[in-house]
Amino acid sequence: MNKNVVLARACGALPPERLSRGSGSTSQQHHVDVWPLNLLRPRGGPGYVDVCGLFLLQMATILGMVPAWHSARLRIFLCLGPQEAPGAAEGRLRALLSQLRIRAEVQEVVWGDGAGSGEPEEEEEGDFVNSRRGDSEAEALACSANCLVRAQQGRGRGGGPGGPEGGDGEEGPTTALTFLYLPRPPADPARYPHYLALLEILSRDLGPTLLIHGVTPVTCTDL
Hints:
Elements: E1 5-9, E2 30-35, H1 51-64, E3 73-80, H2 88-100, E4 105-110, H3 135-152, E5 174-181, H4 192-203, E6 209-213
Parallel strand pairs: 2-3, 2-5, 3-4, 5-6
Antiparallel strand pairs: 1-6
Helix pairs in contact: 3-4
InterPro entries: SLC12A_fam
Protein name: Solute carrier family 12 member 9
Membrane topology: Multi-pass membrane protein
C-alpha cells in the first residue's frame, strides 16, 4: 500500500455548521482529535511520530484552514504507559509542532503499555498490524484503543475520567472529527477480513472519523 489513503466513517454525522461555506462561527465549540500513533500496533516510544503520523497532523492542519473549521480546536493525543513520566514526550512533540508551525493542544493519556519502547521502526509492506498477536489479543487491543478514544471525546483540558488530570471535571467542547492512524493491511489476502474487523472495532461509535495512511514525508513549514 504505497499510496496515501483516507477512509471515512460516519462522516454523514458531521455537525451541519462544519459543512457550510461560512466562517464556522458558532456557539457550539468543537474539537478535532488526532491520534498519530498506530493504536493497533503501538511502538516507537512515547512522543515518536512516524511518516504516517506526520501526515495525519498535516491533514488535520489543512482542515483547520477551511473557513467552516476555523473555530475548531485541534487536539493531539500521546499515549503513555503507567511507568512513563509525563511531560518529556509532550515536550518532544511540542518542539516538532513548533517546527512545523502547527498550533494544537497536546494531551497525554495513560493507556496499557503506552507506545512501546525500543528503537523506532517503520512498517514494512508485508507487516500486519498485529503480526505478533493472536486474533483474540488483537481484538482486545482494538477494543481497548476504541474505549480510550471514546473516553477523551467531549472532554476539555479540565479532565474527566482518563483525562490528563483525572477526576470528574466538566464536559467541554465535543469532538466533531477524529483522525486515526490507518495501519498497512496484511500481506496475506486471507487475513483481510480480520484486518477489516479490527478497523471496525477500533472506529466503532466514534462518530465522524478519518482513518489515514500516509507515505509522503511531510516537512513543510508554510502551514
